[in-house]
Predict the 3D structure of the following.
Amino acid sequence: MAAQFDRTCVVSAKNGAIVRKDAEMSSEEVETLEKGTVVRVDSERTLSNGTVRCHIADRGWVSSKTLKSHDVKPQVCVLHGTAANGKIVRIQLGALLPKLSSVDLVFVDGPRLASEGNAQYNMMRSFFGKDQVLREFGTATLDDRGWRTYDGVDRAVDEAEAAVRARFPGAPPRALLGFSQGANFTTMLAARAERRGEPYACVVLFCGARPGWAKQMPSLLFETPLATPALLVAAKEDTVVGDGPYEMAKLFASPVVLTHAEGHKPLPSADPEALNALTSEIAAFLRQHTITC
């Protein structure tokens, strides 16, 4: 039966062995698929044998046995705040990580080095260590309302998209998660993806700024509210972005907004019960939108 199937190449990876279309499968390639049942993959949301879930961008064939032998998880891209990096945002999200065992988090560094003139630069080095290489996704400015904008925003978003693609060469992530500047760029990336017909399954946005950058972008991107499911986290004592998360929520058709009682950080630390409740809701939201049945 396998000989009738077409393929371009056999790819062995942690997401399973995929046989793509365009040429006939050889017996050796069938062996590569571990002699499991060969099932058709037609979309980015695929379920095998009722239990094993995978995210594959290419159409082709995949071994259900291979899928069952791997820990196949949806991938979620994480974008850090200004004057930070992937290691720092991993620390900032530390209390959430144990609850996200159902997804594979990939932390992406901003493509630009943060300037020493960045208002957060010295504070971040002091707190996280002088050996940290601090990065950013764009050079922040303010519009005449005091809302967040970026110098050369289109180019900055192009660079952010390239940074994400570099970490996800086989297929795009299922979802995006961002803190502060990372939340701003997550929203712009989600808008681009949705308008080109390739929406992310969801986004999670911590402490985003008032979106002056929405008016900098081509009008089509934010002409109508985004259908992409969005969960936004606002901090009641946040003096950095103020009511930014609530203004950002207006860019989405059906946003969910959660709050914590502390300042400009993704998660609270003073109240263990509040921390547990917030992280549980975030984890449930990601499971709901990234695990497809």
